[in-house]
Amino acid sequence: MARYAMVIDTKKCVGCMDCVVACKTENQVPRGFDRDWIVYDTKGIYPTLQTEIRSERCNHCDNPPCVYCCPCGASHVHERGGVVLVYPEKCVGCKACMAACPYDARFVHPEGYVDKCTFCVHRVEKGMNPACVSVCPTHCMYFGDLEDANSEVSRLLNERPGHRLLDSAGTKPQIWYLD
Amino acid sequence: MDPIRELITTRHNELVDPLLKVWGVEIAVYLFLGGMVAGMMVILGYFLFKGRHKELRCSCALLPGLCIVLLSVGMLALFLDLEHRWYFWRMYLTFKPASPMSWGAWILLLVYPALLAAAFLRLPDLIKDLFASLGRAVEKSLANSAFVRTVGISNMVLGAMLGIYTGILLSALGARPLWNSSLLGPLFLVSGLSTAAAFVHLIARDPYERVLLAKADNGFLSIELFVILLFVIGLLSSTDVHINAAKLILTGPFAPLFLVLVVGLGIVIPLIIQSLAVSHRIRHTPIAPVMVIAGGLILRLVIVYAGQASHWNVISALK
Questions:
Q1: Which residues 45-84 on chain A approach chain B with CB closer than 8 angstroms?
Q2: Which residues in chain B have their CB less than 8 angstroms from residue A91's CB?
C-alpha cells in the first residue's frame, strides 16, 4: 500500500512562488484563493536570526481531524496513497473541517464546497509528479512513496534531518521539511 | 534580549486569513438556542415525569411549542451558515460516529418527535374539539402514566444529549486550543440549563414554578461558575498554546466581554439578585432571568470567536 509524501528542502527553496502559480494553473484555483503558499519563518535572537522559506499546503495527515469531523463523508482518505481529498458533491459547506485543520489549509470554493490541495492525485495516477513539484526551478520539492524504501523521499529522509509542521498537534503530517 | 519569531505568509484565503473566521453569529445563535432548548426539554421532561402536566397552569403546555419554534430558528441559523446549503440533506445519508456534527444532525432529528409527543399530551382544547378522535387519543394517553413518564424521560435524555452535543461540537476540534477542553460539553450543558430555567421562569404562570425555577437557576449558575473556573484552570495549567488561548478571554481582546458580560452580568449579578429573591428579601423580577439569557448568548459568541482566534502556532495576531 503506497503512502504518498512530500519532502521539501528548505535550504534550496527561494520562495519564488512558481509552485503556487503552477497549482493555480493546473487545478484552476479560483482567483483570491490558494491551495499552496509560501511562508517566511524567521526566528532567533537579534542579530542572529534565521529565516526558513517553506512552500506549504495540506499536509495529507495520517491522523486527519478534517476527515473525522466531516458529518457527511465528503472529506475522505483516497484509497491510493493516503491522500486526503474532498468530494465536492457531498460537501455541505459546514466548515467543520476548516476549523479542525491546525494548518488552515482549506478554504471555501466560490461554488460552496470546501477545497484544498489534492497532491495533484489526477497527475500522480498517470505517473507524473504534482504540478508544484514538477515546476520547481530549484528542485527543492520531492514527491514519492514512503512505503518504498528506494524512493527519493525515503532516501532523503534517511540521509538528512527534517521536521514536520506543528508535530505536537498529533495529526502526523506527511510533508517533511529538510533542515 | 528575548528570542523572536515572525511568520509571513503569502496565503490570503477568505475566512482563513489573517485569523480563522469560518463561524460567526449564526453558529453562536444556533449553539445558544440549541443549548436553551436542551435545558427546556430537561425541565419539560421533569415536569411530565413528576405529573405536573395535570396542573392547569403548568408550563408544560407552552414548552413543547416554544421548543419547536426556538429550535427551528436555531436550525435556520445553522442552515444559513452552510456554504453549500441546498446539500444539507446529505448529512442524513450517512452516520459518522467520529463526527460530533453527524451525531448532532441525528439527535436533532430525534428531538422533534419527543417534543411533538409532549405537545400531544397538552393539545389545545380547540384542536381536541375539532378532531374528536384526537381528543380521545390524548385522554387515553394521559390516563396511561407510564406513557407520560416515558415521554418525560425521553425529553430529559434527548435534552441532555442535545445540550452536551453543542459543547462537544467545538471541543472535538483539537486544532483550536481554546475549544480543546473536555469541560466545554458540561459548560454548554449547564449554561443551557441555566438559560432555560431563566426563560421558563419568565414565561411561567404558576408562582410555585417561578420559585422552583429561580432556585434551580441559582444552582445551575453556581455550577456554571465552577465549571468556568475549572475550564480556565485547565487551560492555564496546560501547554503554551493553551495558556495563550486562555489569555484571549482573561487578558486579551475577548476579556471585557467574557469577564464583564458573561461572568459578571450574566452569572454573578443575577445569582445575587435571584438569591435575594428566593430568600424573600426582594421581589422576583424579570431582570435576573433576562441577564442570564443574554449572558448565555454572549458566552457562545465569545467561545466561538475566541476559539477561532486561538491557534497551535504560538504566534497570533491577537496574542
A1: 45-46, 49, 56, 65, 68-74
A2: 84, 87
What is the number of residues in chain B? 319
The residue written with cell numbers 504540478 in the block is A131
CA atoms of B291 and B310, how far apart (whole Å): 28
Is B168 in contact with B101 (CB distance < 8 Å)?
no
Mind telling me how many Å the CA of A100 is from chain B's nearest CA? 5
Per the listing, cell 409527543 goes with B117
- CATH fold of A4-178 reads Alpha-Beta Plaits (3.30.70)
**0.90 exceeded by pTM:** yes
Read off the amino acid at residue B35: G
Q: Which residues pair with A162 in a beta bridge?
A: A178
A 92-131 near B (Cβ less than 8 A): 92-96, 98-102, 104, 106-108, 112-114
Count the neighbouring beta carbons within 10 Å of the beta carbon of residue B267.
Answer: 24
Q: With a cut of 90, say whether residue B51 has pLDDT above it.
A: no
Alpha carbon distance A138, A9 (integer Å): 10
Q: How many CB atoms lie within 10 A of CB A155?
A: 15
Query: Is the pLDDT at B82 greater than 90, yes or no?
Result: yes
Contact B52, B180 (CB under 8 A): no
Partners of A75 on chain B (C-beta within 8 Å) are none
Mean pLDDT of B255-266: 97
Average pLDDT, chain B: 92
The grid coordinates listed for B311 are: 491557534
Q: What is the pLDDT of residues A75-85, one digit of tens each?
A: 999 988 899 99
pLDDT at B318 over 50: no
A112 contacts on B by Cβ (under 8 Å): 83-85, 87
> Strand, coil or helix: what is A44?
strand
What is the pLDDT at residue B161? 94
Q: What is the ipTM of this complex?
A: 0.90
DSSP string, B182-237: TTHHHHHHHHHHHHHHHHHHHH--SHHHHHHHHHHHHHHHHHHHHHHHHHHHHHHT
The x, y and z cell numbers of residue B198, run together, are 431563566
Task: State the SS3 of A62-121.
Answer: CCCHHHHHCCCCCEEECCCECCEEECCCCCCCCCHHHHHCCCCCCEECCCCCEECCCCCH
CB B191 within 8 A of CB B37: no
DSSP state of A130: P
